[in-house]
Write a structure and sequence with these properties.
This protein has 123 residues and is of the alpha+beta class. The chain has five helices and six strands; from the N terminus they run E-H-E-E-E-H-E-H-E-H-H. The strands form two sheets. A three-stranded mixed sheet has the order 1-2-6, covered by helices on one side. Helix 1 packs across helix 5. 7% of the residues are buried.
């Protein structure tokens, strides 16, 4: 599995809230990429190149209850292929995050990630 994220405003990679869960997911075999050109709000998901999801909805409990964003599920092979093509072109402008970037952190960074994790439903 691969996850793409924009760089945070200070250009250090994932935000503290994202980093905490990213550590767990990376240990499970997920690869993370930072999209270099800037911020993206749209979400593109491809599942086994059989189904695609396109939209702006964030995938967290808070967003499901509070936000009025939308996502479309695509099942047509032609539409799914188009989404995969867009995702592949985005990969050309992305940088893979290494496990060292996720695991090697200062005590202050670890504390800020743990604090963000507590408040993540509100962030």
């Amino acid at each position: 599995m691969e996850r793409h994220s924009p760089l945070d405003p200070v250009k250090k990679g994932l935000s503290p809230n994202s980093r905490k869960i990213s550590d767990l997911l990376m240990n499970a075999g997920v690869h993370f990429y930072c999209y270099q050109p800037g911020m993206l709000h749209a979400k593109l998901i491809s599942i086994d190149r059989q189904v695609a999801v396109v939209g702006s909805a964030n995938m967290d409990i808070r967003s499901f209850y509070l936000n009025f964003e939308i996502a479309s599920f695509l099942y047509s092979p032609k539409d799914v292929k188009e989404v995969c093509t867009v995702m592949e072109s985005m990969m050309e402008n992305s940088r893979r995050i290494t496990s060292d970037e996720i695991t090697l952190k200062s005590s202050i960074r670890k504390f800020s990630e743990d604090l963000c994790r507590i408040f993540s439903p509100l962030l």
